[in-house]
Design goal:
The protein is mainly alpha-helical and about 160 residues long. The protein has helices spanning about 25-45, 50-60, 65-85, 90-110, 130-155; strands at about 5, 10, 15, 20. The longest helix has 26 residues, at about 130-155. The model is unreliable at about 1-15 (pLDDT under 50).
Length: about 160
């Protein structure tokens, strides 16, 4: 991997001493960063840890873009504030773990792809649309949610 050090002034900001990946590392970073940003934006309205994925994507893109660095701090503050608030009560923690478990359980039928039941009122093609990719996304979202809940408990919740 080749890195180059640069000093760029953009709207009065300086990025002196920062290294920017080049070549394949840069392309991989862009792909991972944009993928996390897109997943984060989707997960803001779909099940999943949207703000945290968005923070991860911005953190990766911030290595190459000043605009991403500017957006990273406020988005990270909102994500951490939401995470801290979510683990303040035992009831909130219970609901969070239950929601994560529901995501995993919802994903299992999509991965297993059971045959269409007799009670299904629609055409067969509408039974579990999306297949294994939809199911694995739900399961992965549930597993990530559990990991983020445990992290939030350890980081933001005082000892009981």
């Amino acid at each position: 991997m080749h890195f180059r050090s640069h000093r760029v002034r953009f709207n009065g900001s300086s990025s002196a001493g920062r290294t920017t990946p080049r070549g394949a590392a840069r392309i991989l970073g862009l792909l991972v960063g944009w993928l996390l940003v897109l997943v984060g934006l989707a997960a803001l309205v779909l099940p999943g840890p949207g703000l945290l994925a968005l923070v991860g994507g911005l953190a990766v893109l911030a290595q190459q873009y000043d605009w991403a660095r500017r957006w990273l701090r406020p988005v990270r503050q909102k994500a951490f504030a939401a995470a801290a608030q979510g683990v303040q009560s035992r009831l909130g923690i219970t609901f969070s773990f239950t929601g994560a478990l529901v995501l995993v359980l919802l994903g299992v039928p999509w991965v297993v792809q059971p045959s269409v039941p007799g009670w299904w009122p629609l055409e067969e093609r509408w039974w579990l649309p999306g297949g294994w990719s939809a199911g694995s996304s739900l399961i992965l979202s549930g597993v990530l949610a559990v990991a983020f809940i445990v992290y939030s408990i350890r980081r933001f919740r005082p000892d009981p």
